[in-house]
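Justification of computing resources. Each target in the renewal requires a structure prediction run like the one illustrated here; the chain below, 150 residues long, is used simply to show the kind of job we budget for.
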Amino acid sequence: MQFTDILLLVVVIVAIVVFVLYMLNRWAYKKMDSQSSMIEKTKTTQQVYVIDKRRDKITNVNMPKMVIDQIPKWSKFMKMNFVQVKVGPQILTLIADKRVFDAMPLKKTVKVEIAGLYIVNIVGMKSAEEMKAIAKAKKEKAKEDKKKKK
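Resulting structure tokens:
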């Protein structure tokens, strides 16, 4: 075998690998789009009281057996974001998106968008930047009030 034969073989193998990865990427995006459209159709806004939040495996969390059976095997070993909330009289364990999980306060009532067992978005809460801006405005107003009193 000559060097050009080996080089040609390597180029063909790399091209096949790139093509397979491209097709897998297209398939994953189609699946993600269909799932996100289903989430958009089924999401509802509810007011919940956040009891606890933690990152854990689904087998260690108090989830119904039916839910655990439906989750793919590779997901059972991954740590996920779980939030224990009180919705009305019921206490539920829900799965949250990472940015929602990070922004969710403990021991507070929050309005969230829920699709099944998945918390999609926080609706009724101010972000950290908004809270900082409000605090800054309050400090400035307090300084102005002190100046007016003098």
